[in-house]
Amino acid sequence: MPGDRSLEARVLARLDGLSRQGLTRTLHPPAGIDLCSNDYLGLSRHPQIVARFAGAAARGGVGSTGSRLLRGERTAFAAVEARFARFKGTERALYFGAGYLANLAVLTTLTEEGDVVFSDQRNHASLIDGIRLSRARTVIVPHSDPAALSNLIERTPVTGARFIVVESLFSMDGDMAPLADYARIARDAGATLIVDEAHAVGIYGGNGSGVIEEAGLDANECISINTAGKALGVGGAFVAGPSWAIDYLIQRARPFVFSTAPPPAQADAIDASLDIIAAEPARRAAVLSKAALLRARLGVDGRSQIIAVVLGDNDKALAVAASLQQQGFDVRAIRPPSVPAGTARLRVSVNAALADADVNRFADALTAVLEEMGVCAVSS
Ligand SMILES: Cc1ncc(COP(=O)(O)O)c(C=O)c1O
User: What one-character DSSP code corresponds to residue 169?
Assistant: First the structure.
């Protein structure tokens, strides 16, 4: 039994503080029509993918039993990495147990003291944590502002390397980064562009490999992080890029070296998921058409599958979410620190499996709740 009463008192005071600010989190399993998951293509329950996962687990067991550098390695990992690299158009790819770990790996391994990281103001916590753990200096860049980025690069002295770090599709706002501009700026400055494609991989571009493909960029010019637990429906993440980067991550990335490899059956399941993405482009078209429908109904600009309904106040966001949940819609309130203070919101996400009728019913319900509560929402 832990003995430090003062620690207990401090923790209880912190929990009380969270409660008074409307920031207490509770854990709720899925309930109602999915308007909040990242299962954008509806692949997490796809029978072909589930069968590959189950078959691989039955043959090879559940756990990998060790780090990839030791007995945790399997041919299925190497095979799916080679396949993902072809899909992404890069020389190589490396699979991690989570996107969070992949971001920590890239940012702590490739950066060194004397380097400068130019990081978009709205980057995801996993990118921020990776940068914080690195020894590089951080310069925060105003959101999606190439002119400001150029300016900051010009004004910031650097003895080592420069990095530009962005999400291609921002997870909480649903807007796209001006990637082509960033790639040009990176080229001119001799900087390395690190792109988190967590919410874009599987959906955008001719083959569905992400916004790097859609923007017509050479994927080997960037180092990208591509989660497999969102549109791909499984779990883990691929870092994709040139061979030198992947070789170095295998040697030195602490989240890769000092962590048990993911369950090997995940590699088989992802292989099946990439089959479906190639064979069924209609899923990608469907998610974007549902997004267009909901955006039109709510009067929100943009084109992605993530729609932010910003309510500002934490309690208001919770109340609007609770009312919609009671009507059978699974939407969740997103509060600080996931988003900046004063911008609590519903992060609505649509998926290919949603019926148009449900999208319309949800738009009606949301509009009615906002009117009833007299709440003004700013959407992006
Ligand atoms: C932009 C972004 N990057 C990285 C991650 C982390 O990925 P994972 O959930 O696979 O750890 C997330 C997860 O929500 C994310 O939204």
Answer: B
- Determine phi and psi for 36, rounding to 5 degrees: -145, -10
0.70 cut: is pTM over it? Answer: yes
Q: How many residues are recorded in the chain?
A: 380
Pick the residue whose CA is nearest to atom 3 on ligand 1: 198
Q: Alpha-carbon distance 175 to 173, whole Å?
A: 6
Instruction: Kindly tell me if the per-residue pLDDT of 376 is higher than 90.
Output: no
Q: Cα–Cα distance between 378 and 175 in angstroms, integer? A: 14
CA of 107 to the centre of ligand 1 (A): 14
Q: Give the tokens for residue 312.
A: 């500002």
Spacing, Cα 86 to ligand 1 middle (Å): 22
**Any idea which residue has 């039109």 for tokens?**
296
Is the Cβ–Cβ distance between 30 and 330 less than 8 Å? yes
Cα–Cα dist 259/246, whole Å: 17
* Statement: residue 380 has pLDDT above 80: no
CB 261 within 8 A of CB 64: yes
pLDDT in tens, 199-257: 999 999 999 999 999 999 999 999 999 999 999 999 999 999 999 999 999 999 999 99
Ligand 1 atom at minimum distance from 235 CA: 10
| Nearest protein Cα to ligand 1, atom 9 | 99
The number of angstroms, rounded, from the C-alpha of 79 to the middle of its chain's C-alpha atoms is: 24
Q: Summarize pLDDT for 301-329 with one digit per residue, the tens.
A: 999 999 999 999 999 999 999 999 999 99
Token match 């299962």: residue? 39
